[in-house]
Design brief:
This protein is α/β, with parallel strands linked by helices. The protein is 34% helix and 14% strand. It contains 4 helices and 5 strands; from the N terminus they run βαββαβαβα. The strands form 2 sheets. It has a 3-stranded parallel beta sheet with strand order 1-2-3, covered by helices on one side.
Length: 131
Amino acid sequence: MNIKKSAVLVTGANRGLGRAIVDGLLATGAAKVYAAARDPSTITLQGVEANGLHGELRAQGTQVVDVRVGFMETDMTKGLDTPKAGPKDVVQQTLAAIEAGHEEVLADALSRSVRQGLTAERGVYLGEAVH
């Protein structure tokens, strides 16, 4: 998919990763950027329109990309002493996934580990099997 000719919807677009993705899309020259947030009034970027529902968009043929990241360098994680992904790196992975037609980005080791555990025959969240 060519981002420059596309209309794009970003959820959580008012801060953190969502805001960084919107900035990246605008810099890349996306034709139209739609932004979603819990409070649409917090979407204040020039050239961006605030909404949309994930399932309905996919059903109508709109490419939907789920971006998963454990901890990322944002205001929310500022005080945490743990490895964090950089927003620009996550944005680069996300833009590459969009252009490749992928539906999911597992942006760091933590998100990949969680994903692997959730898809295991017996999810790690269930603990050891009782015999």
